[in-house]
Amino acid sequence: MLNVTVVSPEKTLFAGQVDSVFVPGKKGKFEILQNHAPIVSILTEGIVRCVGSETFEIAIKAGFVEVSNNEVSVCIEV
């Protein structure tokens, strides 16, 4: 499982455990799964989707994602 936090400048939009996270990276969309290599990536306009027992999905304008030790932090502009 991944521990995911999705925040905007105003508030936390989602926090929970999921199986995967799909993000619109600057060089293309990619999926984050358990034990993903550590990464920091710029996000472009698109959809962030967190999939687990329930799905969280949000359209974004920009942002960044940081992944380390099954912790995923997504900071977005909506």
UniProtKB/TrEMBL annotation:
Entry keyword set: ATP synthesis, CF(1), Ion transport, Membrane, Transport
Topology of the protein relative to the lipid bilayer: Peripheral membrane protein
Annotated compartments: Endomembrane system
Main location (coarse class): membrane
Gene Ontology CC: endomembrane system; proton-transporting ATP synthase complex
Record domain ATP synthase F1 complex delta/epsilon subunit N-terminal: where: 2-76
GO molecular function terms listed in the Swiss-Prot or TrEMBL record: proton-transporting ATP synthase activity, rotational mechanism
Pfam families: ATP-synt_DE_N
Family of this protein: Belongs to the ATPase epsilon chain family.
PANTHER family, per database record: ATP SYNTHASE DELTA/EPSILON CHAIN (PTHR13822), ATP SYNTHASE EPSILON CHAIN, CHLOROPLASTIC (PTHR13822:SF10)
General function of this protein: Produces ATP from ADP in the presence of a proton gradient across the membrane.
Record note on quaternary structure: F-type ATPases have 2 components, CF(1) - the catalytic core - and CF(0) - the membrane proton channel. CF(1) has five subunits: alpha(3), beta(3), gamma(1), delta(1), epsilon(1). CF(0) has three main subunits: a, b and c.
Listed name of the protein: ATP synthase F1 subunit epsilon
Native species: Pseudoprevotella muciniphila
